[in-house]
Amino acid sequence: MDDTKPTLQESAMRYGTIMGLFWAFKFVLIPIGFKIPIIHIVFFILTIFVPILGYIFAKRYRTNCCENRISFVTALSFTLFMYMFASLLVAVVHYIYFQYIDNGFIFSQWLNLINQSASMTDSQEYLQTINQLKDAMKVVMSLSPIELTFQLITQNVFYGLLMALPTAALIMRKK
Full-prediction pTM beyond 0.85? Predict the structure, then answer.
């Protein structure tokens, strides 16, 4: 029987696939949340759970593949790869959604929320902020589905880096 342990990249792909499926499930909750507002709270709670899940996966990798010893660099590499693979998987879902399903639904809903909040105030500072949000939303709405997908990949990898640093520090164990 072959007793070889999976490589860092293989493990990161496996755990990244699970993380990517989790992110895809979370993403599906966004448009549903506009119809059933309590779903946005579920989305927020699941979003908070992402770094915890990353920690759990990194700890499992350390235990199952590294004999419970892992350097900071190896832990950082694993978590970065895991988040990168998750970002690539969820990017496919993002692209399919924005190309074939959305038809501007999410952004028009957000624009409606911005307009509603603008009608509830007389504060000039607040209205100026609202107008800046509207301008930003118009820029985002002008992106093609592929441009939007690449923007989301970049954002996910960046946040993955931010989550990978403390996770690696918590997971590392000296030999």
Answer: yes
